[in-house]
Each structure stands twice: as C-alpha cells, then as structure tokens.
Amino acid sequence: MNKYSLHLDSARCIACHGCEVHCKINKELPPGILLCELNTTPMFMCGGVPKSNFTFDTCRHCEEPLCVDVCPTGAMIKRKDGIVYIDSNTCIGCMACTRACPWEIPIKNLLTGKAVKCDLCYDRIDAGLKPACVSTCTTHALKLVRLEAE
Amino acid sequence: MKKISYSVCGMCTVRCPIRVESDDEKITWIEGNPTLLGGALCARGLAGVALREDDQRPQTPLIRVGARGQGQWREASWEEALKYVAGKLDGIRRDYGPEAVTLSSRGGPWQALYKSFIHAFGSPNYTNHDAVCGRNTHHASLSLNGVGRTDFVYDIENAKHLVLFGRDMFSSLRIAENIKTIDMLEKGGRLTYIDVRQTRTGIKATRFFQVRPGTDYALALGIIHGVIKKGYYDQEFIAKYTSGFDELSAFIEQYTPAWTAKACDVKEKDIKAFIEEIGEDRPNVIFHPGWNLARYSDSFYASRALHILNVLMGNMEKKGGLLFSKGAGDCGVKGIRSIDISKPDIKRADGVGWKYPQFDKGPGILHLLYDAVRSGEPYPVKGWIAMRHDPLSCMPDPEAQKRLLDKLDLLVSIDTNYSEFGWYSDVILPESTYLERDNFIVQQKGLKPRLVRREQVMPPKYDTRASWEIFRDLARLLKLKDFIPFDTMEEFWQWQIEPTGHTLDEFDEKGFIDLVDEPVIFDPEKLDGKFKTPSGKIEFVSKKLTDCDLPSLKPYEAPVAPAAGTFRLIYGKTPLHTQGHTINNPLLIELMPVNCLWINTKVAQKLNISEGDIVDVFSADENYNASLPARVTDFIHPEAVYMTHGFGKDIPRQKRSLHSGASDQKLMSNGLTRWDKAGGCLSLCENFIRIEKSMRNNIKKIAI
User: Domains in chain A, please, with CATH?
Assistant: First the structure.
C-alpha cells in the first residue's frame, strides 16, 4: 500500500505554475520536459462568477506499476513506501516503461539519454523534507499527504 | 562547499524574502523565507537560478559604435566605460549645468542610492516608473488621508470582505498578501472582483462584476451612493475624523443604483445585493484602492472614491481593515542610518512642484520630463541614466520616445538584462544579477517593522558589477564628495545598523531582524494627528486640490465608445513573467512563450476568428502591427481586447524571445499625450486598436 500521495487543494491553488518550474530546477531538466503539470479547466459559470478548477498531474505511483515489470534492466523500482523511481545508473533509455504506462508518464531526457519521471523527490522525503513542488508552493495549495489504511 | 544565504528576490519588484542554497558552481535551490513565507515562492522567483546562468544578458560593459538602436557594440573594460560615461556627464555639466542630467529607476527600497547620486551630481531630476504605476493611487490617498498609499497595511487575513477593482493580485503575486487572501477565503470571507474581463483573481471571487471598460469610477460612485443612502457607514468615525461629508452626500445624489447599472453594463440587483453584503461585513471590509491604476483619465478619482469607501466603512486601525504602516519611530525604537543627499534647490525639469503643484515632489512625473526634452524649457535635458529601468518598454509609444531621446547627448543603461532602452543607449553598464550583488539594509515599515538586506550569494559569473559599486566609482571619477564614503558593503552595513543596537550576525538566524516583538496597533479612538492634510482631518473636499483648481468630487464623464471596427486595448500581468524583463528567461519562456489576444466570443464570430487563430493587431496610426494567437472567451467585455504586457520585444541578443507576441506599448500611438491631470499617471487603457484575422491562418501552406 502506498504511503504517500500529492494532493492539490484547487481552492487554494492560483495556477502560478511554480510547482512545474521548481520540479525542473530540482531535477536539472532541459527544456521540453515537465515531470508534473498544472492544468486549468475552461471557465464555467458558478453562482454568477466565471470559475476555473485546477488539476495537478504527475506519475500515479501505481499500486501495481506496469513500468516496473516491463523494465528490462530492473532500473524501475517500487519502494516499500510505494514510491516508484528510476535508478539512472541501470536505466538504458529503451523507454519500454513509457509504452507500458497507460498515461505514458516516463519521458526521455535527451541530455542523459535516460528515462525520467516524478519520484516524489524521495531523497528529500528520506531527509525529512517535502518534495520540491510542495516545498515552495506559492499559496500552500499542494500537499504531500500520508495515506493510511482503514 | 554548500552554502545557505538569506536575501531578497529580484525577479520582480515585490522583492520577497528568500533563502538560497548554493555550491561552488551554482545556485541549487531558492525558496521563500521559511519564517515569513513558509518556503513559498512563485515561478518567477524560482527561475532566478536561470538568470545567473543566462548568457543572453550583457556580460561586459558595452559602448555603442553604430547609430542608436542599430545594435552595433564594442566591448569595453569597466575602467574605460566608466571614464567614458563620467567624461560625457562632465561635459554636459560644463555646457548645460548639472540639472541637464536625469536619472530614472523603477523605484523601490534602494532608490535612495540612485537619488542621492544624481542629487550629489547637482541635478534635482531623479524620476521613476511610478507615473505608469501607482502615482494616481498615491496622490488620491494624499489628497484624502494626508498620507500616501504605502502608509497603510491591508489586514486582509482578518477581513470579512475584500473588494478588488481590477487588482489582479494572483497574477501580480505579492506572496505574503496572496497567502493571506487565500486564508481569508478559506475562513469564509468574501471577495468581490471588478474588471472588464475575468482573471486569475476573479475566479476566486464570491461576486464578480464584468464592467464596461472605463467605468470603475461610476461603479465606485454608485457604491458610495448605496452605502450613504442605506446608512452603512461609521457615523462616529465620520464625525470625529473627517470633513466635507455633507458635500459628499449631496454630490453622490445623482449616482443611483439604476444609473450605475446602466453606466457600467451590470445589473442593478447585483449592485444592491453587494451593498447589503458590505453592510453586513463592515467595518471588516477592505476596498483595495488600486495598484497600477494608470489606466483612465479619471483613475485618480476612481482611486479616491475607493479610499473614500474605506473611510465610510470606518475600517482604519481596526482588525480586518486598513492599518497604519509603522516605522521605527512609531514603535519607540531607533532605526537604521541611510544614505540621503538632499535635492539641489533647482526647479525640476518635469514641472512638478512649480508648474504642477498638485503632485508630490518625490520622483516627479516621468512623461512630463519628455515635455522638457521636447521644448528645452525650463532648461535643456541632455543626459539620462536609466537604472534598471526601461521607459521604452513600460511607457507608451516608444517610437515617439526615441525621437525625443535623439535630442539627448548621453543615454546610459545600467541593467542586468538587455532592455529596449539599453538597446537604444550609448553605453550599457551590466549590473550583476540580484543573486550576485549586495545591497543596503532596508527598513521595511509595517505592523512589525523589520530590517532586510540583499546579500551576495555567488560571485558574478560575468564581468558585471553591483549598482552601488557602479555609482561609487562614477562618483569618484566625477569628484562628488561624501557620496558613499565606504569601500565595502560590510562597512556600509555596520554604519547603517549601529544606531539600532542590533548586529549583522542576527541576519544569519532567519534572514531578517524584527525591530519589535509584537505588532504595533494604534488606538482607533485616538487617531488625531495621523492624517497629515492641511486640516488634520480626512478631507472629502481637499484643500490642496481646491488650491490647484482641481475638483475633489468630480462629476462622472462616460468613456468614449470605440469607433466602429476598433477595440479598447487593455493590458495586464501574468504570474509567469515580470512585465518585460523575464520573457527571455529559459525556464519561464518555456511555459509562456507568447501572449494572446483575448476577444469576446460574439465579436470574434463576426470577425470569423476562432480560438487559437492568429490575429494581426494594428496601432491607431497603423505604424505598428504584430501577430499573436486569439483567445476567444465570453468573459471579456465586447468593447475591449486584452493582452499581457511585456512581449513583442525587438532585442536581437535576447534570442529566445525575439519578436515573440505583441507589444501593448507599441500599439499605444500618441499614448504619451493622454494622462490624468489630477493624479499624474498616463492613461494606458485609452488606446484603440484594429484587429484582423491573419492571412497566416490560410489552409494551404506550401513549404519550400
């Protein structure tokens, strides 16, 4: 059972896109790659006010990740706490993971030739910190939530 | 080695407090100050890491070799460039007098440095960006309250109702204020948003008025009418602290809800319902008096009406209202020393203080300086140092400005980035990025005044210098005595902080120094002496305005409707860029490479324009045109089209963003001639443009 999830409080989010930028900086990603994406719905009328909602999309860290099974070198790893990450030392950039993923989440980093995707900044979590996208969220709308079994 | 620094962000002019991690090579992490912002920082602030690494900014002093604006430069050493500038300044001083040199900046907490430099040189002509920003709001506050717009803190967090007239705060992003606003909404507070279009801020509102462009003043008058007629005002406060209430009551008689609804294109029942809401929520209601209200020729009066509404609410020095911003003196503690060289006793070139007694002298009014350039009266203007300021990007009609700049003998740009003014200058002196330079300690007023400072995080990557070093060295070459008698910033900081009893080490703890432990709030029953008007009261009818032959309660005049086939051009901000100076940042341009043209759905249908189509936009004199994608929406008034400011730049060395999108200020032909006589600001939303679906949308495209 996964231990963590990212949750966006749409009522607090102002769609400043800081999460996307901070993720890129922290992972030193070249142009063209975003590991998370903040999207805005088209405006709709609600109580006389045009409104939009915001959604935050990134790797789902599936309970039974297809990308892990398909990886020929064992570079795609699911940790005990549910975080799915890529060991870049063993990744060969074949991108079988992308083809296996229903949402085509992993992306090839052309600078390194390896696959990249959201790993919930597990290095930061292990150090007692929050993921980059959560740490600097402008209105504290994005949260790392701990999932608990009923 | 890993290093942690506290500093002040420089990606926009809000200047949020930041915490920065770096190693020997580069900056690895920037976040908002953990104590003050809980780490929060916007995309622009985060993208500061890319600014230092950006090789598309000036890397060494540059001296122009071709014609102005042609973009032919030669690299120069600092010694040569500074000697060149000092020699030219010396020549102007000899031939025309020191007052022939002007220095402009964006404004902000460090402008004392620039102002003191030009004063020490002998010129009274320090000016800044505020005539296209906050001057109307500032002057409106002065005329009513006797204190400026920044003398109040808005206690949004504890308000029950925040009212924003076109103040798109979730695009301009003052992070501390944004968090407080979201917290207020989460607690069930109300937000009423008024604009000609829906914005990032308006979508969070509990009530939204989409008004006809140019009718803010009408709506504010209608609200005052409702508040007074319904008796939803603080009679005790009015009796004790104000004068002219009878004149105000008589004046608003004609601005009934029915009249207002018609003037503003909104529903009468919505105005009435809104008035009932503020009747319930007062005194914890804040009418934000506007920020960048350099929009219409009556924006001063619109802002004054909003200030008046705060007075009627009786919200001053009350929780959830307007609180006086406190300085060290208000808290009974000693403040820091700061550089301050007084203005020479010479008439300002822009006429402020003598030809225009209605305006606060401070930074004057920049567009009126151009009158002096044009006429040579009261004296010629021959030199201009633009300190991280780009008048060609932030003021209308840059081509008209260039014709005037051609009358000057020296144009100098001191800037981190290439600016359009810089590209037209004679000399570019490259300033180190905000992460590579120190700056003075700043004493920030507020409920708990505090000291902050900008501290160098990394050494400059290129051959650039801090602004204080540039001015220090220019002053030495020009033999200006007493200007920065220090060699290092460390010595300067020591001199500044000494009277406070605090030490510089305290900055290392959390990045700032509180001058007091608890917020200082005055007794709301004892505000006598706080309003610095001639009468000491809040003046609904201002003696100062009357003395200048200006009305205090100006009858409303409806804005002109656009001529057939033209649209009123409205500009605004985005959370992803800071006006013109971040559009070449690789991290930000990736997310927002171009601006769009917002156009009303019905209007677009008539012009056969669909969402995403390329549209061509033309200035009224047809001398500027540009192309950008259309954003077709119901949520913009049909008389208006909108675009984000800062695009359409023409600086070849900014390769990523060259010619991307359209420039609003280039579309404002003759825009320097339309301004608010009472507030001083240019009227940036009084420009009309023509639009067409572009030929570039044709279905058949042949690639050869």
Answer: 4-146 (3.30.70.20)
